[in-house]
């Protein structure tokens, strides 16, 4: 089995486990993530953090995003422009949220496009080394590459439930490793500069 085929199998398996969670379990896990990371992720006031609004059975990080905004972050959401490209539009209180393609929602065309300093990255599976499997379209990989070509090096925090962890993610040349991983069990640090505290998975 090729790395691409193995990733596809792991993606299907872990998303099925995520889908099987009850709505109550997803809500409790999402609020636990707020407790673990809301006051821990380090950034300067005015820095830009990209989040996402949940689709299907994803983690709901809107409470976490609200806490980060209260601490002085500028927020943005990914918006799909075409089959290969996402950009990040600023999310401000009271601004309209519109359908942005492929089941996603985000700010409208009049919202400023920002370059995130920290990216909260949705994913289908991850491992203990910080490798991730996305949803298969490569939007985030291309967005990160585009930012890095501009000299912008966003810190990457994966967002998922514990049930989405796998033993090992097969690596491919284009893969970008995470700096940290947030689940309902805690915030795991793989890189530097994510947290002002020493945090780890609890338990």
Automatic annotation (TrEMBL):
Catalytic activity: (6S)-5-formyl-5,6,7,8-tetrahydrofolate + ATP = (6R)-5,10-methenyltetrahydrofolate + ADP + phosphate
Keywords: ATP-binding, Ligase, Magnesium, Metal-binding, Nucleotide-binding
Keyword set includes ATP-binding: yes
Gene3D superfamilies membership: NagB/RpiA/CoA transferase-like
EC number(s) from the headed UniProt entry: 6.3.3.2
Record GO terms (molecular function): 5-formyltetrahydrofolate cyclo-ligase activity
Protein name per its UniProtKB record: 5-formyltetrahydrofolate cyclo-ligase
Source species: Rhizobium herbae
Lineage: Bacteria, Pseudomonadati, Pseudomonadota, Alphaproteobacteria, Hyphomicrobiales
């Amino acid at each position: 089995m090729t790395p691409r085929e193995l990733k596809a199998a792991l993606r299907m398996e872990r998303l099925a486990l995520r889908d099987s969670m009850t709505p109550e379990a997803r809500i409790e896990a999402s609020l636990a993530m707020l407790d673990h990371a809301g006051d821990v992720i380090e950034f300067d006031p005015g820095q830009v953090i990209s989040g996402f609004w949940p689709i299907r059975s994803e983690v709901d990080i809107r409470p976490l995003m609200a806490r980060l905004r209260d601490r002085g972050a500028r927020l943005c959401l990914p918006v799909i422009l075409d089959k290969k490209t996402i950009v990040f539009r600023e999310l401000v209180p009271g601004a309209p949220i519109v359908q942005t393609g492929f089941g996603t929602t985000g700010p409208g065309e009049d919202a400023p496009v920002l370059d995130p300093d920290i990216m909260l990255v949705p994913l289908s599976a991850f491992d203990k080394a910080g490798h991730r499997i996305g949803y298969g379209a490569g939007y985030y990989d291309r967005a990160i590459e585009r930012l890095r070509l501009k000299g912008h090096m966003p810190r990457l925090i994966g967002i998922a439930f514990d049930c989405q962890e796998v033993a090992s993610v097969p690596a491919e040349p284009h893969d970008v490793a995470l700096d940290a991983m947030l689940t309902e069990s805690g915030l795991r640090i793989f890189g530097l500069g994510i947290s002002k505290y020493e945090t780890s998975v609890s338990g």
